[in-house]
Task: inverse folding
């Protein structure tokens, strides 16, 4: 009999990581004939609330395992249907008075080798549909977590919600996002670090400038300001103007900020790009005011569980949108924790949690470090910014003309050999 048989698993947070874990655990219990596992999901928000907030795309990648996890969960085909217009691959572009020049362009998006960009809502609802069809899973919407305590007599955890309800569980899986209220209660010293990245984000009902259509990418100059731009749909673009700041921006969440605050953020974005091509300024100036918000970039190295309170996704190792990997990591964490909890190689929940963390910590650490480097690279100023763009242009041209590059490299090696060894 498996050690997880008959146990109650509480999941705090019904976002991408929480749903990936719930789906993975139900699937693996079924496949391994493990019965009686009850899953309770506690989600702060109401079920319907999320739709508008999640109306932007994100990269699901095969290099970090997101695509493979969705395939194993049996939801990939359904989620691919929510792919947005940005199918041409990621680019890095520069700008001048004449417009935009693509310096490097990655191959077209394709779930088989690179990845794809679904709407976040499509990803979330695709998993939700499948989780909801499982009778061992109960959802508690509009149920914000408040506290968790351990009862030494029963060896169970008691989860208290803000409205006074209480639930018992044998294991608590924390998937409540980057500012994790559970982490704040249980491990208050594990705080995310402000990466200095401030992102002013919005959506405009227009296509991107001509040569940036059907793609997503970064436009970077030498003044430390970058724009992320993605073609979401016919006549719809999402953009984020970013820069490095010493202090986080006074955050205005999209759901709670006032119209005046949103106007101010839009003005701030336009001020930052006042020397950029008119096409870009016009695109941002025409933003849908409701969509305007600020994202401060936080990240954190992964940490271990406290007892049987185990952390996955952003609750464990938040990264900024610049790493384009947080959702992928949350998906993979969900799968990998469920795999260890149902594996006959482990003899207890504690062993399974340790095996999960031994695998997750190096994986997540690498992605947090890469994300930090990407932020610095994208916001270089002065001559460093000029050198970066020169480097990217060279790489881009080598990728576009591989035969010429090969001929130049062979020629240079032959010439070097002649000078060194020729008589
Ligand atoms: C603009 C933007 C672009 C991004 N682009 C990409 C990308 O291209 N690729 C990529 O891989 N990632 C991307 N990400 C990151 C990605 O969205 C996150 O890393 C991912 O959502 C993390 O999943 P999670 O389940 O850990 O947390 P979340 O998806 O944040 O889910 C946390 C859940 O916990 C709930 N919750 C919070 N507090 C409580 C509480 N007190 N009680 C109960 N529930 C609670 C929340 O309501 C939420 O549903 C992007 C993020 C942003 C903001």
Result:
């Amino acid at each position: 009999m498996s050690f997880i048989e008959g146990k109650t698993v509480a999941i705090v947070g019904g976002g991408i990581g929480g749903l990936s874990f719930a789906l993975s655990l139900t699937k693996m219990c079924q496949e391994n004939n493990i019965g009686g596992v009850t899953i309770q999901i506690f989600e702060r928000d109401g079920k319907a609330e999320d739709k508008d907030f999640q109306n932007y795309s994100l990269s699901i990648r095969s290099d970090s395992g997101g695509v493979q996890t969705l395939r194993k969960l049996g939801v990939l085909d359904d989620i691919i249907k929510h792919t947005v217009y940005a199918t041409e691959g990621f680019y890095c572009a520069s700008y001048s008075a004449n417009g935009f020049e693509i310096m490097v362009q990655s191959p077209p998006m394709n779930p088989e080798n690179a990845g794809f960009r679904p709407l976040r809502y499509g990803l979330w609802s695709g998993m939700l549909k499948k989780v909801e069809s499982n009778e061992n899973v109960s959802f508690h919407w509009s149920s914000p977590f408040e506290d968790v305590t351990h009862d030494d007599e029963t060896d169970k955890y008691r989860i208290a919600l803000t409205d006074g309800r209480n639930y018992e569980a044998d294991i608590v899986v924390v998937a409540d996002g980057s500012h994790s209220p559970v982490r704040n209660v249980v491990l208050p010293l594990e705080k995310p670090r402000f990466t200095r990245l401030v992102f002013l984000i919005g959506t405009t009902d227009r296509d991107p400038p001509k040569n940036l259509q059907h793609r997503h990418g970064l436009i970077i100059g030498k003044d430390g300001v970058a724009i992320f731009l993605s073609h979401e749909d016919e006549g719809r673009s999402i953009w984020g103007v970013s820069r490095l700041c010493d202090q986080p921006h006074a955050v205005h969440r999209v759901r709670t900020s006032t119209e005046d605050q949103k106007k101010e953020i839009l003005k701030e974005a336009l001020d930052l790009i006042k020397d950029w091509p008119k096409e870009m300024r016009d695109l941002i100036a025409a933003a849908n005011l409701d969509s305007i918000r600020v994202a401060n970039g936080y990240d954190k190295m992964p940490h271990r569980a406290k007892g049987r309170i185990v952390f996955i996704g952003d609750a464990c190792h938040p990264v900024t949108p610049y790493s384009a990997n947080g959702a992928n990591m949350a998906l993979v964490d969900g799968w990998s924790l469920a795999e260890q909890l149902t594996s006959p190689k482990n003899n207890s929940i504690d062993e399974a949690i340790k095996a999960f963390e031994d695998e997750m910590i190096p994986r997540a650490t690498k992605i947090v470090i890469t994300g930090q480097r990407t932020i610095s690279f994208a916001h270089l100023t002065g001559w460093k910014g000029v050198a970066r763009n020169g480097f990217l242009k060279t790489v881009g041209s080598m990728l576009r003309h591989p035969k010429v590059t090969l001929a130049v490299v062979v020629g240079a090696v032959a010439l070097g050999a002649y000078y060194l060894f020729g008589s």
